[in-house]
Hints:
This protein has six helices and ten strands; from the N terminus they run H-H-E-E-E-E-H-E-H-H-E-E-E-H-E-E.
Amino acid sequence: MTLFESGSQYREKATIWRIFSLLPLFSFLAGGHVWRWFAINIPMDLGTGGRFTSDIDIIARLSNRPRSPDWFYRTWEVKVSLLGRDGKARSLKRGKTGKIMKQLRAYREFGAPEVSLLDIVLCEAGCLAANPFPTRDLFEAVATKLSDLQDEHFGYHLLPFEHERDADGDGGLRTFDLGDWSGRRDYPMLGRPDFHMLQSAVTNVDEGFMRLAQRLDEFFEAAAERPAKSLHQIIFCRVCRQLQLIRMRYDEACPDCGADLIAQS
Length: 265
């Protein structure tokens, strides 16, 4: 079964997992900066007992140059929509923009300094070859979000990709060359080749977020040195209640308790 065919509750986390399994699908989030680490699905109140009870989908610790002492943080809320081979879009979150904005505001209220929406378009096998991208309804959905996000100075990324098929299983990935959009006058707002449409404003870092970020920093630096350590991701196992440093390209189970990390809600 491909991600496109998976259940909605499982799909979002599994899609994030797949993105961080392949360097070209997640490195663009760094925006050309050096990253020390990425952390995935981290509870806001990890070990603090505070009032924030939701998760941050993605946190990145970034720098403008290697070995620089000046690090900064970015966060993303992730949403996944579907685009079939017939060109029909599903799960576009129409009518749910208000809920998405509320989630982004919660990141900012928690003290995250840069907050963006990562909108992933999961395409059915054969979709990108059979249809022009973006489709009209997808473009209209994106345009609606852009207006609201821009008003409140949140960032916005769009990432379309598809699974190919190998018998009944997942046979790989294909992305769309967004550079081809630059000359398309009918979709002027989607002409960014790096999927990046809005840059988040930088706001003050509050105590709650900094406490969480410092805990992640300390965990990462204390973890055993491994080859390509920066290509490992920090995750939180909800079964053993521990942070783990894994390589999502290869690992789907908690190294301590063996629990399925993707299936955890």
